[in-house]
């Protein structure tokens, strides 16, 4: 078996960004000092660990669901794996070309048309002009933005933005595919199309790293799940067990049952 991703004792620290007046900086009141800790605890040095000693390995072709409550560090971890961000401690190793959707429309230029942005986005993901030429019609058909293809993306709706970004990402020949909250963007037909395409990607032996709050789609899409808890790996293993683990620990953040049912139905459809 070939190792696809190694995350070795990785930590990432961020700084809280407060906006204070000059007076507050020079003469901080007790209230301002206490505000340095949003949990209301004692004043901190203004930093916190979004990821703390995270380690795991992924084999080529595995499909990993990354789960956890809001703010547990999932997107940060994806950014480290995709190379958009570097860890402060530890190391992240990946094998092969990475594609995927991390921030919808990241790297798009508002003043350029959809067509130009497809070429630019594809180049950023490592595709040559010839490769993009060959796949252009498929990419445009998948995005399905109609006549808007030749208008500046600055005028697109957020859903159209997402369609274009996802469309390029799924047409890149890659070894690792990263998807953050795919089900959160696009309308129902587009979500269905995305899930179908991701299933094909998964079945083609590409390593998949998929962030979702939807237990249903992780169950159908992934063969292993990692649950982050406040920046640490709380669970790593069987998907069903991961879901149980999450329900047990997140009493006040049970996934929305209705939404889960809808996603289940969508995933069943494909
Ligand atoms: N660039 C940044 N600067 C400061 N703090 C950040 C930055 N990026 C993320 N954070 C913080 O790091 C923590 C983890 O964020 P992250 O986006 O990784 O969580 P998540 O698990 O993806 O959350 P969600 O489920 O809400 O998308 C959060 O508290 C967030 O506010």
TrEMBL record:
UniProt keyword Electron transport present: no
Q: Per the record, what is one GO cellular component?
A: membrane
Q: Which UniProt keywords apply?
A: ATP-binding, Nucleotide-binding, Transport
Q: Where are the transmembrane segments?
A: none
Checking PROSITE patterns in the record gives: ABC_TRANSPORTER_1 (PS00211), ABC_TRANSPORTER_2 (PS50893)
Domain (ABC transporter): residue spans on this chain: 26-255
Comp. bias (Acidic residues): 250-263
As one GO molecular function, the record gives: ATP binding
Extract the ranges annotated as region (Disordered).
28-48, 250-270
Q: Which SUPFAM superfamilies match?
A: P-loop containing nucleoside triphosphate hydrolases
User: What protein family does this chain belong to?
Assistant: Belongs to the ABC transporter superfamily.
PANTHER family in the cross-refs: TEICHOIC ACIDS EXPORT ATP-BINDING PROTEIN TAGH
Q: What is this protein called?
A: ABC-2 type transport system ATP-binding protein
Species of provenance: Nocardioides cavernae
């Amino acid at each position: 078996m070939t190792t696809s991703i190694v995350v070795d004792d990785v930590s990432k620290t961020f700084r809280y960004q407060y906006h204070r007046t000059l007076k507050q900086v020079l003469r901080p009141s007790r209230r301002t000092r206490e505000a340095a800790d949003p949990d209301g605890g004692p004043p901190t040095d203004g930093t916190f660990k979004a990821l703390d000693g995270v380690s795991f390995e992924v084999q080529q072709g595995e499909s990993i669901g990354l789960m956890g409550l809001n703010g547990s560090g999932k997107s940060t971890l994806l950014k480290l794996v995709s190379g958009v961000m570097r860890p402060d401690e530890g190391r992240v190793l990946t094998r092969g070309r990475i594609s995927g959707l991390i921030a919808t429309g990241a790297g798009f230029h508002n003043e350029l048309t959809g067509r130009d942005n497809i070429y630019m986005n594809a180049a950023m993901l490592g595709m040559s002009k010839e490769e993009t030429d060959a796949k252009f019609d498929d990419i445009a058909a998948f995005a399905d933005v109609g006549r808007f293809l030749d208008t500046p993306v600055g005028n697109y709706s957020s859903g159209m933005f997402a369609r274009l970004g996802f469309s390029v990402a799924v047409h890149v020949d890659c070894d690792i595919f990263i998807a953050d909250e795919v089900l959160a963007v696009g309308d129902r037909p587009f979500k269905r199309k995305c899930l179908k395409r991701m299933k094909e990607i998964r079945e083609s032996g590409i390593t998949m790293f998929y962030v979702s709050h939807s237990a249903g789609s992780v169950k159908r899409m992934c063969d292993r799940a990692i649950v982050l808890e406040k920046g640490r790996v709380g669970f790593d293993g069987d998907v069903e067990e991961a879901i149980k683990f999450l329900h047990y620990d997140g009493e006040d953040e049970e996934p929305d049952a209705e939404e889960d049912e809808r996603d289940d139905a969508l995933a069943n459809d494909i």
